[in-house]
């Protein structure tokens, strides 16, 4: 069976690029921790937006959809799920809320992982969640012509309970040493979890929930305000490519963790940068929504699209953005470039 021992493997990951990522994240964390503690009420809307984006994106990666209106109602728990997809979305919402509110009291143990998986499927019936796979599974990929091939053979079903126990034990043992940066250790754990693939369904969503849980427990709570799942969904091709590269020779204990660790650290850096940008407009400028849009365009070098504005201001509706753009063009403060889906806007420096 595959052995899990993080005590030495992490040292090979201290490449210049990874060390640079670690330094950036540590600096972001130091700058923002006190701010988050003192401005919790101001950041409430970021939390709510991130919950919606996280629930949508993590399920969307697995092909689970509903309408935007239904999604928002489900996340806010103002409606009951009607379809299988909505039941799975509601389950993700509840596990995400549990992690947000109780992460300090949820250790990464096999029994806890089973409980979280049970709750992920709480609307599907008692026999769906909270149980390891009983039949061997495979990870497939499909090319552009529809041909499927085996990308990876996970741990056999009969070995799975012991493998998860050993994985969790080794992770906690490595954390206890206090020599390994949790930011390196967490992606290593997640890669191994995905290679075990302990459940018949829900492995991807569980891996993203566990990522948040472990980051929160290590003090990196940016995922509460900026959706890490959305950042992964936006770069899912790179996500899957890094998983593939890091899983080669995994069963032989000879895999290279670097591609996946580097990818995940890049996502965390992007989340902190996004958080800094949003906080600036939410708390330090005291601007109205149209004024925020105007200021973002004014301070952007080159051009910006409507979709980029919506991404940077998720609390502002598309109608408000469109109306503000029209007003800024009427006053000749911005110029519209192109048309249709390729439309861009730029500030007129007079």
Question: What would your notes on this structure say?
Answer:
GO terms for molecular function: ATP binding. Keywords: ATP-binding, Nucleotide-binding. It is a single chain. Helices cover 59% and strands 5% of the residues. It is mainly α. The chain has 2 domains: 277 residues, Orthogonal Bundle (Fic-like fold), CATH 1.10.3290; 61 residues, Winged helix-like DNA-binding domain superfamily/Winged helix DNA-binding domain (Arc Repressor Mutant, subunit A, Orthogonal Bundle). The strands form 2 sheets. A 3-stranded antiparallel β-sheet has the order 3-5-4. β4 and β5 form a beta hairpin. 33% of the residues are buried. The model has no long low-confidence stretch (mean pLDDT 90).
Query: What can be said about the biggest beta sheet?
Result: 3 strands, antiparallel
Calculate Rg over CA atoms: 22 Å
Distance linking N and C termini: 68 Å
CATH architectural name of the largest domain: Orthogonal Bundle
Quaternary state reads single chain
Strand content: 5-15%
Give the beta-strand count. 5
CATH evolutionary superfamily of the largest domain: Fido-like domain
Count of runs of 4 or more consecutive helical residues: 15
| CATH third-tier fold name of the largest domain | Fic-like fold
Helical content stands at: 55-70%
- What series of H and E elements makes up the topology? HHHHHHEEHHHHHHHEHHEE
Q: Classify the secondary structure makeup into a structural class.
A: mainly alpha
Total number of domains: 2
In round numbers, the mean pLDDT is 90
Side-by-side strand order of the widest sheet: 3-5-4
Taken from the alpha-carbon principal axes, the silhouette is globular
């Amino acid at each position: 069976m595959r052995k899990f021992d993080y005590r030495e493997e992490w040292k090979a990951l201290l490449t210049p690029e990874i060390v640079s990522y670690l330094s950036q994240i540590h600096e972001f964390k130091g700058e923002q921790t006190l701010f988050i503690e003192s401005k919790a009420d101001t950041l409430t809307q970021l939390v709510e937006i991130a919950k919606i984006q996280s629930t949508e994106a993590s399920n969307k990666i697995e092909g689970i959809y509903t309408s935007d209106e239904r999604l928002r109602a489900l996340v806010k728990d103002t409606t009951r799920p009607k379809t299988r997809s909505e039941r799975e979305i509601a389950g993700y919402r509840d596990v995400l809320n549990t992690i947000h509110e109780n992460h300090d009291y949820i250790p990464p143990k096999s029994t806890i992982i089973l409980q979280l998986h049970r709750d992920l499927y709480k609307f599907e019936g008692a026999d769906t969640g909270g149980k390891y796979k009983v039949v061997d599974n495979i990870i497939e990929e499909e090319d552009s012509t529809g041909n499927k091939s085996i990308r990876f053979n996970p741990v056999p079903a009969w070995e799975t309970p012991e493998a998860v126990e050993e994985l969790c034990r080794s992770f906690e043992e490595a954390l206890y040493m206090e020599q390994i940066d949790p930011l390196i250790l967490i992606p290593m754990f997640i890669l191994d979890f995905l290679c075990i693939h302990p459940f018949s369904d829900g492995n991807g969503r569980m891996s993203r929930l566990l990522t948040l849980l472990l980051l929160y427990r290590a003090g990196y709570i940016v995922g509460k305000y900026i959706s890490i799942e959305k950042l992964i969904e936006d770069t899912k091709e790179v996500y899957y490519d890094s998983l593939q590269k890091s899983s080669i020779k995994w069963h032989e204990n000879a895999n290279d963790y670097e591609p996946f660790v580097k990818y995940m650290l890049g996502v965390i850096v992007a989340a902190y940068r996004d958080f800094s940008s949003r906080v600036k407009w939410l708390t330090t400028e005291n601007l109205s929504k149209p004024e925020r849009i105007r200021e973002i365009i004014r301070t952007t070098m080159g051009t910006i699209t409507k979709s980029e504005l919506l991404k940077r201001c998720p609390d502002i509706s598309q109608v408000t953005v469109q109306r503000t753009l029209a007003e800024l063009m009427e006053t000749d403060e911005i110029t519209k470039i192109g048309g249709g889906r390729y439309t861009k806007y730029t500030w007129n420096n007079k």
